[in-house]
Amino acid sequence: MSPEVPIELVRYRASFEISDPLHLPDYPGSAWRGAFGHAVKAAACTRPGAACAACPECRDCPYPPLFETLDGAEPIRPYVLEPQVFSGYFLPGSLIGLDFVLMGWLNGWLPLLIDALHSVGQQGLGKRSPCRLALIGAQQQVGPGGEGWVSILQPGHPGLIGAPIEPLWIPAAPRQAHLDIITPLRFKYRGKFVEPSAFTAKDLLTALSRRIEACASLMTDLPLPPKPTTWFSGAESLIERAELAWLDTHHYSTRQHGALKLGGIIGHLLLHGPMLEQVWPWLWLGQWLHLGSSTTIGLGRYVVRAA
Predict the structure, then answer these.
(1) Terminal Cα distance for the chain, rounded
(2) In CATH terms, is domain 171-306 a member of 3.30.70.1900?
(3) Do residues 147 and 172 touch, judged by C-beta distance below 8 A?
(4) Domain with CATH 3.30.70.1890 in the chain
(5) pTM of the model
(6) How far apart are CA 231 and CA 21, in angstroms?
(7) Model confidence pLDDT, tens digit, residues 238-258
(8) Res 147 pLDDT > 60
(9) What's the CA angle centered on 247, arms 244 and 249, to 5 degrees?
(10) Which CATH class name applies to 5-153?
């Protein structure tokens, strides 16, 4: 694979100043998605009150592919939300951030999405006691490997300050690599969630290949992993050391009108061997895509770096 991958896969960061006391009891990804969904619909919808499926402008609106399920099947969403704070109590004047990854065509709707995030702050985060937030800036991740940030929204400056979308550059594979699973990674094998004690390199590569193949429907230039016979050959030698645990998080479901538990694997892997070089390009790209289920609210996030 060429080290240059010309895909529209970009991470952005919205910065907020808290106006009211804010209490985050647990992982807030679902709260962000709910507030973001309402704001996007308000910003994009030209026929308030009409069902999306019956709307003649449905195909030209960004809201349905982001939040609606029109044909009964859950589609692949072209975004990932990455809250920068998970829990705690925050006083007025505190700063919090929300990172979000946009894939493919959704980058063209960035101005509307920034307006929606501004509305999220005005309406407030949280269902029971909404906390008002002031959007004070936005940044775009830049650089060959996403190592830098540039401001695209500043107080007092009208509109967005455009920054070009650059190809991602995949660094050379190291001899050893650390992989840190930051938010719960949850995926099933034969109908049951994989537990930390049973986690193998094949599970990691299965989750990675599924996610890459799904996101390739949104980004046609996203390189696909090799065939399974090649992909899994020698996989048992990939993980040198694993330090994993199970973490349960909770979120409020508007659809089910109650709190739901979302658990998954977190922890650290030390990777090495010839297999690492073979799978490295997709491991690198997966840092933007996340793995497993509930990726839109930020679960399955990991970072990988040379040991």
Answers:
(1) 22
(2) yes
(3) no
(4) 5-153
(5) 0.92
(6) 49
(7) 999 999 999 988 766 655 556
(8) yes
(9) 155
(10) alpha beta
